[in-house]
Amino acid sequence: MNTERIDTVEARAARHAALGDPSRLRIVDLLTLGDLSPSEIQTALGMPGNLVAHHLNVLDAAGMVARSRSEADKRRSYVHLTDTALQGLTPGRVERASRVVFVCTANSARSQLAAALWSTRSSIPAASGGTHPADRIDPAAIAAADRHALDLPDKAPRALKTVLTGSDFVVTVCDNAHEELGVTGHLHWSIPDPVRVGTDDAFDTAYDELERRIKELAPRLAAI
Fold first, then answer.
1. Rounded Cα distance, 171 and 188, in Å
2. pLDDT for 56-90, tens place per residue?
3. Strand order in the sheet with 187-188
4. Is the pLDDT of residue 182 over 60?
């Protein structure tokens, strides 16, 4: 059991719980812009002093705020966010990989675009494969890559079994491939097949969704 990871998750949960009250969330919003005294927070939020003190104590207990004494009026203190106040409020890095392999049925559109997009976001190598590869990359996928100034390698679709190794991080980008592979894949992105529709809009929609998901995954995947 990874006790360090459990401790980190518990600390994240405490920060999320501290922010579960709208007033405390407003206080943190204010403190992202600058330091404030409790009385200034009271004025800004129109809140009684005893309630401000309660909320600050909760945030303090979660390690999100700290106080410092004013160098001018020693009776006055200022509240500021700690260096780790917002740490872990969004999902952190969760996996490690030596290579990412994107998979769809034909390896003619989505998985090819995904591998090319990944290379623009991460230094971890990427490849793609298909459970039932087509004879060629779909011309509309090439056109979509051109519209978005994406360098799509001129590689024929490949069977997944000729690409995959035991250490690959597998991302299925179509439902058919995911359901055929079952638990083999690490992640699944349910992205509709643009080839079935055949329009530029369908390919652009698939491209945009792949780009969004890759942008979110890349910083969370560490190289081995």
1. 6
2. 999 999 999 999 999 999 899 999 999 989 888 87
3. 126-130, 100-104, 169-172, 187-188
4. yes
